[in-house]
Amino acid sequence: MHSILISGAAQGIGAATAMLFYQHGYKVGIYDINVAQAEQLAQQLGEHAKAGFLDVADYTSWETALAEFSAWAGEINILVNNAGILYSGPFEDTTIAAHHRTLDINVKGLLNGCHATFSYLKESSFARVINLSSASAIYGQADLASYATSKFAVRGLTESLDIEWQPYGIRVLDVMPLFVGTAMVKDMQAESIKKMGVHLKAEDVAQDILKLVQLKDSIWQATHHPVGLKSKFLFHLSRMSPQFVNRISNLLIARQ
């Protein structure tokens, strides 16, 4: 029985992923800074689910969580770096502390997770890392500047490690959804969400994560995986269009 550890798993995409993988016979690690909510979900799922505390911005917290989960599960096969936060609104009106916190969780948290989990993954019978990127990593979004910056960092680290860890048999992939109907986008202040709308559920992203884990590894398997029709359209359009066209398109999206 393979195991999966999910950060930020107490709610939203993380919780949907935990439930889906549990239903498919995985040992599931539900790790979150909100440990009470994580424990509630684990109890709801059953004996093959384990909850624990994890502050992704703290490397020591990762080390403790990984040692605990590995001892319980036997080995760690899949890491899903899901934990993330979002601040929206004009860049200059957002406090610098909020911008820093975005990078601490969305970037440093992911760096911590990959770095701390590597020693477990390289020893496991099957290993895969799935990072939560975003359609905001296709082209930087107005009113989501530090969030988009963080997701470009996720995209870059995913590409780098997917190559670097190939000799160990570890694939590092990401999913790139547009706006997902979770608490993260509630009351979001960005013109793009008004224009593009929210058409994805947490369960849609979870299904794509499961597909990536179940796919047989191949040199043809892409590193980035847009989720949903709009995200796929924007991803492929950005690869074919000149930069000025991409900029104009995003100016139109951001215009009130």
From TrEMBL:
NCBIfam families, per the entry: PRK08267.1
Keyword terms: Oxidoreductase
Pfam families according to UniProt: adh_short
Protein name as annotated: Short-chain dehydrogenase
Membership in a protein family: Belongs to the short-chain dehydrogenases/reductases (SDR) family.
MF terms in GO: oxidoreductase activity
GO cellular component: membrane
InterPro entries, per database record: NAD(P)-bd_dom_sf (IPR036291), SDR_fam (IPR002347)
Source superkingdom: Bacteria
Keyword Oxidoreductase: yes
